[in-house]
Amino acid sequence: MTKIVTDYTDITEKNISDWISNFLSNHRGRLVKLGEYYDGKNAIIKKKVVKNRPNYSINVNLAKYITDVHTGYFAGQAIAYDYADDEKGKKLKDVLEPIFTNNYEDEENFKLASDASCYGAAYEIVMVTDDSKKKMSERLKFAKLDSETTFMVVDNTPLQTPVCAIYMYEKQVSQLTKTTEWWGYVYSKDEIKQFKWDGSSAKITETVNHLFKDIPVIEFSNGTDQKGDYEPITDLLDAISLATSNNTDDLQSIANAILAMYGASGTDEATINAINQSKVAKLPVGSKMEYVIKNLNVDGIKYHIDTILKLIYQISQTPDLSSDDFGGNQSGVAMEFKLWGLEQARTQKVRNFQKALIKRINLILNMMNLSNGTDYDLMQAINIVFYKNLPKSENDLYDMVSKLSGIVSDKTLLSQLPFIKNVDDEMKQKQEEESEKAKQFMENYDGLGETNEPKE
User: Fold this and answer.
1) pLDDT score of 293
2) Is 402 helix (H, G, I), strand (E, B) or coil?
């Protein structure tokens, strides 16, 4: 967990310095290491290698695979917002949708989910740009912050109420010397403080007020313990890379086998070179030659690697999509059973992301209400919908929708169809088509079972 718990909640230079020192000493190293695993840069530590023996370092980047699978399953299909079918819902949609579009919300959510999967938590800032000539809806922006340099400070109570969020960044001082300095911001419920970090203490350089009525930094947790999806198995990730590297060393040692000659003591270097070129050896009577190679236990190596892989997939709750278990036509129940572990991880993400997205919307509405003099009620007008990003049989889907017609509402059924992007617009268009058909029927019907259309 990246949170800094404190007994002292006053935002002073001393407390800021203590919080940053705590973060750098106890948390940043872990976060940097997790980022290196995702980038495939974690070290492969071998014991002393024999001189002139092959020494490969092959990183089997399963950390990226785990995060990509979890993130794709959870956020690969865009998160949707179901607005109430009343005037409040319509107004809320008209306010939020343009802001979401301007900020590429779908892409932002996916990046946040990926960071949370990697580091255990992701962070986003909501802010207002300085261009006062534009409308507030155009000035409101939200963007992901660096998870390796952002953290929350909470008080030492059972509720762990947030005190502030701190974001740090490297600022280039000189292009010529490429020297940098560490700067940062402290975001509280009513102020933003800029500071400079000299390596041991923070010096506040500027303080400005904001009107969000809350800390404008949102924490997207991956789970209740804020651990990354591959964080519990970093030792196993090291082991699979080490096993693959050592196995490659052994195979390369066979390719570079030693040629041993027996009973040919008079063979000189010139003769050996001639043998290498002509591939023909003229040996004295009673002599022989053969390659000396290391005997490999292929079955043992395969068993070792397969065991490590099985543990990696099992503990990280990630399916091995290359397995034969996912081939062929399988029922939905069978597929869900194979993805049971991944589904448990997804449900945790849903709960935490829902809270974070609600805070994002509340921050946006606080500024819109202040700017426009409105009073939008979030909880009564919107529902956040998360989808599993799974391949589906469209025929089975259409059959299910057809069978539920008349039992489930049309809006719910239409929301299941992947080619319908906006359910409300589709229902409106369908209603207009039905009205037009009814109008045409009434114009052409005489009430006596005959139409008013001219006969030939």
Assistant:
1) 66
2) helix
